[in-house]
Specification:
By secondary structure, this protein is an alpha/beta fold. The protein has 2 domains: 64 residues, no CATH class; 143 residues, 3-Layer(aba) Sandwich (Rossmann fold). It has 7 helices and 8 strands. A hairpin with a 2-residue loop joins strand 5 and strand 6. Helix 6 runs parallel beside helix 7. The protein is elongated and about 80 Å long.
Length: 245
Amino acid sequence: MTPELKIDSIVREGSGRRSVTKSTSGRYVGSRIPTGKPKTIAMDATIRAAALNRTSGASKKGASKSDSQSDTDYKKALNIVVSDVREKVMERRSENSILFIVDASGSMGAQRRMSAVKGAILSLLIDAYQKRDKIGLITFRAKGAQLILPLTSDIATAQERLKKIEIGGKTPLAEGLKKGLETISAEMMKNHLTKPLLILVSDGRGNVSLSGKSPLSESIALASMIKEAKIPALVLDSEEGIVSL
């Protein structure tokens, strides 16, 4: 049976080259009217709102003048009330969690495929520290899937773990997808700001069953779970020549 996994409900937004997430810390990018107690007051926006409201003649609840204050001084003062208060909108760059799921079975071109993936992982890890990214690798072959490289930004660890990867055997595609979904879901639960991405490198010809059902139907079911979890995924077809369906 396919696994039942819990996925967090954090809304992740991004645009441009790097992923950005609204946060309580990071870079001050704007202001807004707070819905409750403001987390961090945006003084510049609050003063602008107070000045605008005063200029337009908006009423100021709670504003008062002391008995000793002259009418002239009171008119010059800028009275800030609750309705003027604005809170800061903070934005920080979120890390990307990129997990490769690679077919290491005995299909044609397995060695070439693995060499290309290793090169891609090491290349991504060169910039991972500054960009807050994590890269991981799962391979599937024979009767199962293995987490070769847990999500990391440590290039030294990656180089060591990528030295020896076994190749050959049947193609348990569903097992690879299951392992990938479990791994990326755990990372999303642990780090709510991460932006996940699954990259499947395979010819898509699974021939090992998880539960006695058709390997194809199991793979489709797991792909549907990934879609329902709103996890972005990329499939790289590693088959050479004309594809025969």
